[in-house]
């Protein structure tokens, strides 16, 4: 069984105020040594983020801080991680800042 993204904050396709954190919940405990989270604007400009953190409980999200307020517009969250089998899993989703 491979890890999968089960929930995110902001949620996929959500319209939200500028978030201060991105949170990703996975079906299995992620391997934090290879976990990355990136945020880019619609014009493909990278947004500065903090380092991903994770509590040991799989019910807790991988969390990254958003280091600056986001301008209104569309953004893409891209992530990469793996579970204990070290099979890499990647994904992305969009959200909009009002």
List keywords for this structure.
mainly beta, Immunoglobulin-like, 42% strand
Order of adjacent strands in the largest pleated sheet? 2-7-6-4
| Percent helix range | under 10%
Specify the structural class: mainly beta
- Residue-averaged pLDDT, rounded? 95
State the end-to-end distance. 37 Å
* Total of helices: 0
> Which residues sit in consecutive blocks of at least 5 with pLDDT less than 50?
none
Radius of gyration: 13 Å
Under CATH at level 1, the class stands as: Mainly Beta
Order of SSEs? EEEEEEE
Quick recap:
The protein is an all-beta fold and 98 residues long. The radius of gyration is 13 Å and the shape is elongated. The protein is built from no helices and 7 strands.
Structure description:
This protein has 98 residues and is mostly beta strands. The chain has one domain: Immunoglobulin-like (Sandwich). The chain is built from no helices and seven strands. The strands form two sheets. The chain has a four-stranded mixed sheet with strand order 2-7-6-4, with no helix packed on it. It has a three-stranded antiparallel sheet with strand order 1-3-5, with no helix packed on it. Strand 6 and strand 7 form a beta hairpin. The model has no long low-confidence stretch (mean pLDDT 95).
């Amino acid at each position: 069984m491979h890890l999968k993204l089960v929930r995110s904050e902001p949620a996929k396709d959500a319209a939200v105020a500028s978030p201060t954190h991105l949170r990703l919940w996975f079906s299995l405990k992620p391997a934090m040594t290879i976990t990355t989270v990136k945020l880019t604007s619609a014009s493909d400009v990278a947004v500065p983020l903090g380092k991903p953190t994770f509590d040991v409980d799989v019910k807790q999200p991988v969390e990254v801080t958003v280091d600056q307020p986001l301008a209104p517009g569309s953004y893409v969250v891209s992530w990469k991680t793996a579970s204990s089998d070290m099979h890499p899993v990647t994904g992305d989703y969009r959200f909009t800042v009002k």
